[in-house]
Amino acid sequence: MKTQSVPKRANRVTTAGWLILGLMGIVVLAGGLTSCASTPQAQVEDPDSWQLVWSDEFEYTGSPDPEKWFHEVLPPGAYNRELQAYTNKEANSRVEDGKLIIQAHPIPGTQRGYTSARITTRISHHMYLGRIEVRAKLPDALGSWPAIWMLPVSTVGRTGWPHSGEIDIMEHVGYETGVVHSSVHTSKYNWPNGNHHTATIDVPEVAQAFHTYAMEWTEDYLDFFVDDQLITRYENEGSGWEAWPFDVPFYLILNVAVGGEWGGAQGVNRNDYPDQMEVEWVRIFARR
Fold first, then answer.
1. Which residue among 82, 133, 166, 261 is the active-site one?
2. Residues 262, 10: contact at Cβ < 8 Å?
3. pTM, whole model, 2 decimals?
């Protein structure tokens, strides 16, 4: 959703079908979905089955490594009526004490102005199949909308969102602290149609502690995890690219938005800022 001015709201599935799983209170929004919305069954694989192919452990100080991260510099309102301007300034994105910090600031002298950062691996690394892990602590300021997500490198033949696909490994909104969302959008299954594949998990200390947000990608499914606990699986139903555009490389995006159609649905409290997402490491693996 973050790639178009399409509203994104917390009550995005129009027909309710709730399934409460396990002691962690996993909730899968299954209403209105087809066979692509399968109940989680798989377990995380043996770590020895993966080989690290790209990472940033943030063992340096200053701006994010320019050989690994590209800043998207964008004005307010570029996506989803969000309030922030994305900059490449160290005030908004920097590495210190072994952590990447993406920090949203209110702009002094304004009532609605904010700055933040959106960094990507579009230049440095493209992923096709494999496993990705991001260990992060999230902001919980009212109006904040942090995300760990992926878009395709090329949209040839599938121009425009949602036809080219989107993978949301983690999304969180400040007015719903402790609820982590994982979603998939495709031409056939997407939020405007009311049938996109999405799930949530309760992570009560999401802003106080680091958690590992992960996704495993095969030719047959996408699995989403928090701390190696499977949240949901999106399956390749074999009906073509409209349901499975995940047959091309994607790149990673890390950002903190402020306000917007979803993040600002219950307002923005300027007194909560600055607030930040902290990242201990990013690791991308290929199957051995």
1. 166
2. yes
3. 0.85
